Amino acid sequence: MVALNQSQSVLITGESGAGKTESTKKMMKYLAALAGGTGMEDRVLQTNPILEAFGNAKTIHNNNSSRFGKLIGKCGGVRRLPIYFNRGHSICGALTHTYLLEKSRVAHQQAGERSYHIFYQ
User: Fold this and answer.
1) Domain 20-120, second-level architecture
2) SS3 75
3) Position 78 pLDDT exceeds 50
4) What is the distance between the alpha carbons of residues 60 and 78, in angstroms, rounded to a whole number?
5) Known binder of ligand: residue 19?
6) Percent of the chain whose predicted confidence (pLDDT) is above 70
7) Which residues bind ATP (predicted)?
8) Where are the domains of the chain?
9) d(Cα 97, Cα 64) in Å, to the nearest integer?
10) What is the pTM of this model?
11) 26 labeled part of a ligand binding site
């Protein structure tokens, strides 16, 4: 990104339970570590546990299954960097949109599954 001064995109896709959520978290931690400095990095990373509490649940296949979609970096129909960097290459902000929350899970779960983590904290 820095060498070419161009925006980059990363698409993380895969089957259920493949590790998409964990891969995304590791990628964001790596970018934050690379950027260094302003304290904004920690604030961006701290959004993950909040989103997981409200949008992840225990299923029969995965104890921390994402039950929603997450798009990081789309604003007003214009695709932008998921994590915003200033001229000094430090993180200065981020944008996250969630969609397709599995609303039925609030009232009903299959045997051996749970509702969203937030209801058990």
Assistant:
1) 3-Layer(aba) Sandwich (3.40)
2) strand
3) no
4) 37
5) yes
6) 87
7) 14-21
8) 20-120
9) 19
10) 0.76
11) no
d(CA 86, CA 67): 33
- Annotation-wise, does 113 bind a ligand? no
| Ligand-binding site membership of 14 (annotated) | yes
Is 16 marked as binding a ligand? yes
Per the listing, tokens 């959004």 go with 47
Question: 34 or 100, which is more confident?
Answer: 100
69 assigned to a ligand binding site: no
HSE-CB for 114 with a 13 A CA cutoff: 17
Q: Which residue has the tokens 């979609």?
A: 69
Q: Are 71 and 78 in contact (CB under 8 A)?
A: no
Q: What is the pLDDT of residues 28-67, one digit of tens each?
A: 888 788 777 667 778 888 888 999 999 999 999 999 999 9
18 is in an annotated binding site: yes
